[in-house]
Specification:
Length: 241
């Protein structure tokens, strides 16, 4: 399985999230609500909810906000009914782009996503045009420190059910099946590891590089334009950054 841009962008993305905290809280709240609605309110048996709560905590979202979002999902509190949508397309240089959305108005979302593709010199595609290039996986990232032994961590991750273990420049990347995500997460937490990334994500099977400066600029603009949209939760690409 190929690597991806999540690790290389994590610090930059967190900086942007801090600057847009209110919007981030809104998006994560929606994700928690839908995860609780679809899989129940107990994170132990709901990997999607576990992933969403971890995102909330990493962004310093207050516990009260998390609890309210869960209750909206279970129907204890009222709120808008959000629908899960996915859009697919291509960016400059043939980069595959997969967008995960939560919306209460699909008639608003589609034109906004199409406009972002147009501005980034990309093309919105049909359902299935790029989704086959990605796999749904659990991702745990742990930053390198002097007290972490690579071989010990790898053996522990495998013991708890990890599917793959990669060593990156800044840290260790642990890939899991969705069904094993909670098991690996809880096991490594029990070993006192701290996570820089801990989420369900889409990982590309292959990566494509860009060398043209204009393509790189347009690709950055496309990703940023999509991430700015209120209805867009996550943007996944197979761009080798």
């Amino acid at each position: 399985m190929a690597g991806h841009s999540k690790w290389s962008n994590i610090k930059h993305k967190k900086g942007k999230e801090d600057a847009r905290r209110a919007k981030v809280f809104t998006k994560i709240g929606r994700e928690i609500t839908v995860a609780a609605r679809e899989g129940g309110p107990d994170p132990e048996f709901n990997p999607a909810l576990t992933s969403a709560i971890d995102k909330a905590k990493a962004s310093n979202m207050p516990n009260d906000n998390i609890e309210r979002a869960i209750k909206r999902g279970t129907g204890e509190l009222g709120g808008k009914d959000f629908e899960e949508l996915a859009y697919e397309g291509y960016g400059p240089g043939g980069i595959a782009v997969y967008i995960s959305c939560l919306t209460d108005n699909r008639n608003r979302t589609a034109p906004e996503v199409r406009h972002a593709f147009d501005k980034g010199n990309g093309n919105l595609g049909q359902d299935g045009s790029v989704s086959y290039l990605f796999e749904r996986k659990g991702l745990i990232g742990i930053e390198k420190t002097d007290d972490i032994d690579e071989e010990t961590l790898m053996m522990q991750a495998i013991e708890y059910g990890a599917e793959d273990f990669n060593v990156e420049e800044e840290g260790f990347e642990i890939i899991t099946e969705v069904s094993q995500f909670n098991s690996v997460k809880e096991g490594l937490e029990g070993e006192s590891y701290k996570f820089a990334i801990c989420e369900l994500t889409y990982i590309p099977n292959t990566l494509i590089s860009l060398t043209d400066e204009e393509d790189i600029k347009n690709m950055e603009n496309l990703i940023e334009g999509l991430e700015e949209l209120d209805d867009v939760q996550d943007v996944y690409t197979n761009w080798d950054m």
